[in-house]
Amino acid sequence: MKMLSLLHFDVLPLAELEVGHHFYWHLGGLKLHGQVFLTSWFVIGLLLIASVLATRNMQRVPQGMQNLMEYVFEFVRDIAKNQLGEKEYRPWLPFVGTLFLFIFVSNWSGALLPWHVIEIPEGELAAPTGDINTTVALALLTSLAYFYAGFKKRGLGYFAKYIEPTPILLPIAILEDFTKPLSLSFRLFGNILADELVVAVLVLLVPLFVPLPVMMLGLFTSAIQALVFATLAAAYIHEALEGHGDEGHEEHA
What we know:
This protein is mostly helical. 62% of the residues lie in helices and 8% in strands. The protein is built from 6 helices and 4 strands. The strands form 2 sheets. The protein has a two-stranded antiparallel sheet. Strands 3-4 form a two-stranded antiparallel ribbon. A hairpin with a 2-residue loop joins strand 3 and strand 4 (30-33). Helix 1 (34-55) crosses helix 3, helix 4 (132-154) runs parallel beside helix 6 (211-242) and helix 5 (170-205) packs antiparallel against helix 6. The protein is globular, with a radius of gyration of 21 Å.
């Protein structure tokens, strides 16, 4: 199936890439990756169930699921506070926390759940973050949050950062804004896909001994990737809020 076609002309298609079969949903003139939606909805469902279980009967002394979710909340709060500062982190805590939790559960679902056993008409199920469409969407959301933060705080003066300290740096500043979502998306996609491929190959070659420790390592790296993505997203938002040349940098907690 044609997955990517850039600069497509009637005579010669350029940069065309075919990477296997996928399960598509057709909605009007749109082709949606059905398998990505299915696994993403599963991850979202898990997070919603965990949230309901943790908050339906809250106790002053937390236990069980409430205790786990409060620990997760404190962990995510520390990520946002360390990157954004004490005064700025609260409005952005839900966004940074959602990114971390979705990526973390998605990565672990790919390492722990036998998605390939479930049959669909075409293609196969896998972790949502193992698909470039998901990671690019998350990176673009981060970029939108980054620009929104800058515009909200500084208005049109936000554009001044592109010509400071000299207009000669304008192309570099613009290029930097393009490379941020690219690096976020490809770093996450590449690491998750590589981990799944390594485990799949080792299961075929030495199914009894090697895959288990590699899978444990995959769980660790999957958690690290979620942490890295959320931390960088918060750092980019802080950069937009702080602005170029601002003095009196807020002390991080």
